[in-house]
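Deliverable D4.2, example record:
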Amino acid sequence: MIATGAAGVVGLGAVVWPFVAAMAPDQQTIAAGAPVEVDLGPIAEGQLVKVFWRGKLIFVRHRTSSEIKSAEDVNIASLPDPQPDSARVKAGHTPWLVVYGNCTHLGCVPLANEGAYKGWACPCHGSIFDTSGRIRQGPAPTNLPIPPYTFVSDTKIRIGEETKVAPAAANA
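Output generated by the structure prediction step:
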């Protein structure tokens, strides 16, 4: 009797599983823009990982305290595309930099931890980016862009959607 019941449960699971699996988005839907979650836990300080969202390369960099300090200590007025480091990271999560992984000059993939500022260096045309992804020298016209993303938790981000901030309630 128990064996028959167990076989029935296994059989039911075998029948139901394909229907449950069919509800998950397929690879084409994911490639079309479904959000991608990245677990930050395994990314060591100083390490960079590459992920793809909507067919575009994204760099997720776990910056060291010295990389953050050097990015924050820059004279903003001296930058070709002035932007403070604080505008390029999420508040409370300064160690994490998330940027598109293509040079803004001609779309080449810059090499990490290279160049005079130890951010990225484009081997094709010589653009140099700092540890905040800001253009410091070379032909790239703008900083590495920031994709839409949000922190789901302290150890996980979702690329493809940003946290919507509700407007402040009007004082009555």
